[in-house]
Design a protein that fits this description.
The protein has about 475 residues and is α/β, with parallel strands linked by helices. It has four domains: about 5-125, Rossmann fold (3-Layer(aba) Sandwich), CATH 3.40.50.2300; about 145-315, Rossmann fold, CATH 3.40.50.300; about 330-400, Helicase, Ruva Protein, domain 3 (Orthogonal Bundle); about 425-465, Arc Repressor Mutant, subunit A, CATH 1.10.10. Helices cover about 40% and strands about 10% of the residues. It contains 20 helices and 14 strands. It is flat. GO terms for molecular function: ATP binding; sequence-specific DNA binding.
Length: about 475
């Protein structure tokens, strides 16, 4: 990266080892880091020449001085446009809520994955200039679901569920493909939870966030003295998941030499830890996840054809959210219900216009982005229901849409939900359906009755009861 493209990061932290780690990781993406050991130093540095050039701040939750949320609020009051990321060991949703309400842009959980840090920094620094992305919140509200609880009526999604449910009953390897954020981990957990191995260990390994020089050791294990720094024997993920399931995410990013060793393990059922002269027979089931179609990588020579054939015995393809647009409303209400159960949150409805806005967006981050967008909106909501006012980034991006409501009503014609997010009374919905039918069939009451599946006398009785003028 050219010198004039270097971005400046302030790290507020008093741990030298972590400071070195963050600075080293950030430098690989073109960031230069300055340090503040406590809150007072950080606030003072904002007024310096370097402080005026800052592109982002990372704040450790345990930094000496002010409480983290108070310090975030103070920093935001002095530099409102400056992105602030909180670094913590806690996975508490309440902490995420407090940080976001104080003004944090994102929330990073230790130990830091290199790719996650760089992605968060880049996304935060580009936020002011790019309106086509929503900033993800790292806090996830998740729990294992069985296949019957998964929300979605789109044919491609139901087909994926059917394949997954069948795969869960077997013992073979499973490949789950789909874009980032579609729910691959959710599917993998459900396959394990409904499989004969459900009571045995489930372990997850993300290839994308694993340093290349540690990948073989973490996957297969190593013996003491196998390489410089191997002071103790380490058991790898495959052995730790014995008799259970190992989920290997982002298999598409696995180096060729590790692919070859994994192929040997899958073929023989044995692993050979690094530095060991003998092999161990391990009974582990594998579920592989990939953001990219592996078959295309095989054709391009970027992935082992033999390994692909072996791991794709059962292949699940999860469609992107843009291809299951009709599921967005149900997903939104489901996520809001889950969000309401989190500490510091409360039940919220969602208006029809807000749902239409969600449906009109293309969701490059898929279901995960929808969930984090709703979480962010729920944090700042004042009323009893989310409106378009709580979705300013989406509203700004969709200014060219003449009427967001059209996206929801098109092809439906009947509004099921009131503006407060609650269901409308059944009589009101029934009246709208009858009016729609009368208009659609141009007042031909015999046809209206036939299409609604009721007799003419019943239709006229309903017209009277509901106060509908059939000439209207």
């Amino acid at each position: 990266m050219a010198e004039d493209e270097t971005r400046l990061l302030m790290l507020i932290d008093d741990e030298p080892a972590q400071c070195r780690l963050v600075a080293a990781l950030a430098s690989k993406a073109g960031w230069r880091t300055i340090f503040a050991r406590d809150s007072e130093t950080a606030i003072a540095m904002l007024g310096t020449q370097q402080g005026m050039m800052l592109d982002a701040i990372i704040l450790d939750q345990w930094v000496p001085g002010d409480e983290a949320a108070e310090l975030i609020a103070e920093l935001k009051s002095r530099r409102p446009a400056l992105p602030i990321l909180m670094l913590t060991t806690s996975t508490s949703p309440l902490l995420a809520v407090e940080a976001m309400r104080a003004g944090a842009t994102d929330y990073l959980i230790k130990p830091l994955a290199p790719d996650r840090l760089i992605a968060a920094l880049n996304a935060a620094s580009e936020r002011q200039d790019r309106d086509d992305e929503l900033q993800p919140l790292t806090e996830k509200i998740s729990s294992p679901l069985n296949f019957d609880e998964m929300i979605g009526s789109a044919p491609a999604f139901r087909a994926a569920l059917a394949v997954a449910a069948k795969a869960a009953r077997g013992q073979g390897h499973v490949m789950i493909e789909g874009e980032t954020g579609v729910g691959k981990e959710m599917f993998a957990r459900a396959v394990h939870a409904t499989s004969p191995r459900a009571k045995m260990p489930l372990r997850l390994m993300n290839i994308g966030s694993t340093p290349a020089n540690q990948m073989e050791s973490l996957l297969f294990g190593h013996e003491q003295g196998a390489f410089p720094g191997a002071f103790d024997r380490q058991i790898g993920h495959i052995q730790r998941a014995e008799n259970g399931t190992l989920v290997i995410d982002e298999i598409d990013r696995m180096p060729a030499e590790i692919q070859d060793k994994l192929l040997q393990t899958l073929t023989t059922g044995e692993i050979q830890p690094v530095g060991s002269n003998h092999s161990l027979r391990i009974d582990t089931r594998y579920i592989f996840c990939s953001d990219r179609p592996i078959a295309e990588m095989v054709k391009a020579g970027d992935f082992s054809a033999e390994l692909h054939e072996l791991i794709s015995q059962q292949r699940i393809c999860i469609p992107p959210l843009r291809d299951r647009n009709g599921d967005i409303a149900s997903l939104a209400r489901h996520f809001l219900s889950r969000i309401a159960d989190q500490p510091g949150m409360r039940p919220l409805g969602i208006t029809q216009d807000a749902l239409a806005l969600l449906a009109a967006y293309h969701w490059p981050g898929n279901v995960r982005q929808l969930q984090t967008t709703l979480f962010r909106a729920a944090i700042f909501a004042d009323g009893d229901a989310l409106t378009t006012a709580e979705l300013p980034h989406l509203a700004h991006m969709m200014l060219d849409v003449e009427s967001p409501a059209l996206a929801t009503h098109e092809g439906i014609g009947v509004t099921l939900y009131a503006n407060d997010g609650n269901l409308r009374p059944l009589e009101a919905i029934e009246a709208d359906v009858i009016r729609l039918a009368i208009g659609h069939y141009r007042g031909k009451m015999t046809e209206v009755a036939r299409r609604l599946g009721i007799g003419r006398s019943t239709l006229y009785r309903k017209l009277s009861e509901l106060g509908i003028d059939n000439a209207a």
